[in-house]
Amino acid sequence: MKKTINLLLAICCCLSVATAQIYTQKYRPQFHFSPISGWIGDPTGAIRFQDTYRLFWWGQATSDDLVFWDDKGWAMAGDDGSFIYFTGSVVVDADNTGGFGTATDTALVAVYTMHNKATGIQSQGISTSLNYDQFQYYPGNPVIPSTSTDFRDPQVIWHPETNRWVMVITRPIERAIEIYTSDNLVDWIYVSKFEKTGAQKEVWEVPDLFQLPLDGDSSNLKWVMTCGMGPNRTQYWVGDFDGTHFTMDSVSEAYLRHGAGIEGVLFEDWENGYNDWTATGNAFGANPAQGAIGGQQDVTGYLGNYLVNTYLNGDVSTGTLTSPAFQISHPFINFLISGGSQFFNTEIRLMVNGQVVRRTQGYNSERLRWDGWDVSDLMGQPATIVIVDNATSGWGHINVDNIYFSDVKFATQTEHAYWADWGTDFYAAKSFKDYDHAENRMVWLAWMNNWSYANSINTAWGNSTAHSLPRELKLVSSPSQGYRLIQTPIPALKKLRQDSVSIGITQVQNSQPLTQFKPPRNTYEMEATFMVNPGSGQDFGFNLCVKDARKLVLGYDEKTSEVYLNRTSANDIFIPNFNTEMRMPVVRDSQLTFHIFVDQLSVEVFVNGGEDVMTALVFPAEDALGIELFSKNATTTMTELKAWELQSIWGVNPTPAEEISGFDNEIDIFPNPVQTTLHFKAVFSEKQAFSVVDSAGLVVKSGTILPGQRSISVEDLGSGMYFLKMGNRVVKFVKK
To answer: What is the CATH number for 428?
Structure first.
């Protein structure tokens, strides 16, 4: 019996080592889920059942805690190979409504889009499972036939009030979410459609529907509808759902349709005509427009019922619309704009002393989005605003609405909507449906990628990245938006923390290295709080993944009250359309808190307790490990910082050195970085066994140093970061 146990232990150890080695590739995330190999896209079929979390893509992974995952491999079987499995969901049919279960086994039913390889037609199918590893294709598919190439991503929930299944599914081109119901998961009936509200510039995909208590009050539950808006954003709506129709409530309606709560002084919204504005030419007509005019494409994103739209009689009409004079009293002028992008000819202008001092064009779209000007240098000046249409060719018109004078900048280049994440890489978020009903919380995660460049990313394990951290969701009241979706990392992630580093009050000036925290790889967590001094123009934050001139910049701009993430100089590889800066407006306060997770190829930033969130991919060099504090324009007080290295969920160590507590000067080496030969400053009187370990924890070279030997050749090593280990002494070096 003892030999059997020892053999099993040996096998388990070998499997553990093998698994760890699989997850050592360059950029492989160490505490986010990614597949062993191959593509991972939208999170699909996220459920909790029998104390197990299940996540599909249509591979499957399982977890006890949403932290450590077991990759189960491809889950679908029995189909004829004529289609591709697209995004969908998985349900637990506890009452055996579909007849797929047995007296002893509850069926899991996967519901998904069948994308026909030959025709591109998208219909909806199901597969069933009793063993929960493999799902068998249902021979009666499709359960919702279709002739459309844009009809996808079913999310199915059980609605106890009506005692039936409910499906939300998108019509992407129509910017619509359709609702179907079923008694048995096979026969579906269309019942309603939610459409054309919120952001509509890009297609709608991957919807979800769930309930959250408002402000923690379990007696006041609100329904939240979400969808992905390609290529990478996730938006949401708040309201009521009766099992058939989703409708926004009055608070959500007031913000999304009328702009209630937007910070600033409303200068003009044209709800009562042109008022004292002066029109010339024939582009404006006697009254503002109510949406599209004539044969114009659908115009969306304006607030209220009216807007300025110069498409009157088509693009050939021209003219100007000039505001009454006003004194510039706020540092920002914000507005909604769309239409043509013709410089000088289709634009909104700010005039001071008869001169054009600011100008903005449309962007060849009928979807209005937020833009605006920093006019802090013009405070107190008399001014007018002129809307100009001097164009007569295609896109020779302009749309403008809701001009605000404000102390904050919200020229976000986005449509007016509820946004879940302001980064470039949080898409197709899906919530975990808890069929155990054991947890009083809602958790979701998303695909960390962006269709603008997803197919250009080639990691060592496939054309793939990872899913985001699981996040707990809360819905709170907000004076500026009506509602705000709060997202915080699940508490179970804390079990990954290694010894903490704590730093007290620190005055930050210019740029200074964070010498107290030096993680051996980019897998760590930090929480930091900074004091904000109103009117100071502070610009402070962190430079992450620093190597020479390369860095990922995370900062807060006090002047605009925006958090920004700039990855334009952070990456060690070239990806088209990738090097961008992201900005998100945050509520002004006397302090600002960053909660940061860095994991090899990603950064997730939770600001002020998850009120605002930003998620982005980044591909730094493996030895780009520097962390710096910075503050520009004014000194900033950091009141507290805590930081932790995070252990790998795959059993991968940054070095093989549990015993390492620092670098021993007894084996100082030079040069560092090194090109071909590692030289020792000390002479060893006895032979020394050594090993060289790469940043993933793998031994890549080993041998013995003889008495008097003063060097080791490392010419055979590739460029990167390494650790030279002799007994329990270790020194880090970099190979060029």
So the answer is: 2.115.10.20
363-406 confidence digits (pLDDT tens) = 999 999 999 999 999 999 999 999 999 999 999 999 999 999 99
Q: Name the catalytic one among 42, 153, 425, 694.
A: 42
CATH at 730? 2.60.40.3080
Query: Whose CA is closest to 489, among 473, 475, 467, 471?
Result: 471
Name the average pLDDT for the chain: 92
Are the CB atoms for 527 and 642 separated by under 8 Å? Answer: yes
What does the block give as tokens for 97? Answer: 């409504």
Q: How many whole angstroms separate alpha carbon 660 and alpha carbon 311? A: 70
Same domain, 253 and 272: no
- The DSSP string of 237-259 is EEEEE-SS-EEE-HHHHHHHHH-
Residues 221-244, mean pLDDT to the nearest whole number: 96
Element (H, E) at 152: strand 152-159
φ and ψ at residue 665, rounded to 5 degrees? -65, -15
Measured between its terminal Cα atoms, the distance across the chain in Å is 52
Model-level pTM?
0.87
Closest CA to 603 of 527, 546, 549, 524: 524
Please give the residue range of the domain that contains residue 544: 495-646
Phi, psi of 20 (to 5 degrees): -60, -40
CB 44 within 8 A of CB 467: no
Catalytic-residue membership of 599: no
Residue 569: its H or E element = strand 562-569
Element (H, E) at 149: none
